[in-house]
Ran GTPase-activating protein 1 (Rotaria magnacalcarata), 279 residues
Amino acid sequence: MGIDGGKLLAEALITCHKNSQGKFALKQFVAGRNRLENEGAQALSKAFETIGTLEVIRMPQNGIRPPGIEALSVAFVNNQNLRLIDLNDNSITLAAQKLASAIEKLPNLEVLNLESSLIRTKGAIAVARAIASHKNLQELYLGCNDIHTEGAMEIAHAVKNMPTLKALDLNGNCLGGDGIDEIRQALEKKSFVNQMIFSDDEGSGDEDEEEEDGVHDEGDEDDEEYDDDDNDEDYEDEDGEEEEDPESPSFFFGKVATQQPPPWNSLQFGLAKTNLAQS
């Protein structure tokens, strides 16, 4: 669809709402992997604000960055019946605080997927505080977000007493062995704790430093010799142009794809399936 397609769709939705004389009641919007980017997301956010009846919004893998996320956050608040938000694989970064503020105002939220969206530790803390008072949250996906133990523990403490929560994904973050143990201990009373997977954890910074120190202690002289060889190779052809990575479907989302993604299932996030009533 792209940016232009997103703008055209937004205009069409606003026109439909106007022509229906208030009877237009769209409940689900799904537009994943469409390269909407900021401008497309901003245009659609205006349509969402106008509609106000949405319960499901799925916009994964659209190359949306902070300006687009902030615009969507404003629109979310105007749709108080939102039960599912999926912004998986966009770039939330600095907009995490504004998104969290919107989430806090959505008491009916059941599923929140912010996986692979670079919310980082501060963003995780903001999300944790936003969902602390939620009573309907069932699934929370925050994997692959560069979250360190401090942020993950805030999430764990926020959800540990939620009777409705059935799934929590924190895999692919930066917790390390000690951090993972802390998370499991904090969530020991949750039925899903034994199903939580941490196989893709990136490790804590402290663990990485210890491993590097151990390597250098064993053979500093050899390391220096290999470093010199590597430097010679790096600068052997100073006039050569840097080789660019081949363009791939994930090029516009900030990382190069390593394999063809599986067919997209609109009701599956990877850990659990959520059966939402078709509206």
Summary: The mean pLDDT is 83. The first helix runs from residue 2 to 19. The chain has one domain: 2-209+246-253.
